[in-house]
TrEMBL record:
InterPro entries: AAA+_ATPase, ABC_AA/LPS_Transport, ABC_transporter-like_ATP-bd, ABC_transporter-like_CS, BCA_ABC_TP_C, P-loop_NTPase. This is ABC transporter ATP-binding protein. Keywords: ATP-binding, Nucleotide-binding, Transport. GO terms for cellular component: plasma membrane. It comes from Paracoccus jeotgali.
Amino acid sequence: MIRVENLHKKFGGFSAVDGASLRIETGSITGLIGPNGAGKSTLFNVIAGVHKPTSGRVWMDGEDITGLAPHQLFHKGLLRTFQLAHEFSSMTVRENLMMVPAGQTGETLISTWFARHRIRAEERALRERADEVLNFLTIGHLAEERAGNLSGGQKKLLELGRTMMVDAKIVFLDEVGAGVNRTLLMTIADAIVRLNKERGYTFCVIEHDMDFIGKLCDPVIVMAEGKVLAQGSADSIMQNEAVIEAYLGRGLKNKDMVSA
């Protein structure tokens, strides 16, 4: 689905992404790991159109999408979440979801005068879809809660719910487990697996929790210093000397520390 070739992204003289090449296969849940500063989030940002690459190309389903803006990629089904949730805190959880689909009739002033029946019908449909999404994510009881009052894990579920309000093909999840308690993290993992198996979503996940990555992701891609260092199953990655060196700066004798 996604092919990245020789991608570079420089900020001044610093190469955040330095010649990365990788593939994300349709229907996979691909993990992206690496030490802090490896270039993972920058790679996500370039693929998702937040940053333009210095050089290199990105393809999606055979189409060159290099440098397209986030809203253009949104319409192609490529979505990205962030380490910190970006909810509308003063709106309800349901309202946050209802805002997601683009091109709603009520977005234009003239339609609010002459297309009120259509607007009401759209709002009913969006409300029903939002409630379906919330129930799928097991947070239907929070529909009327202000989004700003949610816990960190609940906000991550809300971010995931936003991707379900449109026809997403691939979702890039950036540190979905950051600040999330273990119980909610497993709820998020279950939702990701169900979306993958039941609705055909493809995922690419940045995460530092190796237990989470090991249970959820295959394959796993490792980045270090802006480059792709290794790719394979979680088990093979954990045995890779270069990966252990990148994380710990030591040899295989410390490999048990990686899984600790």
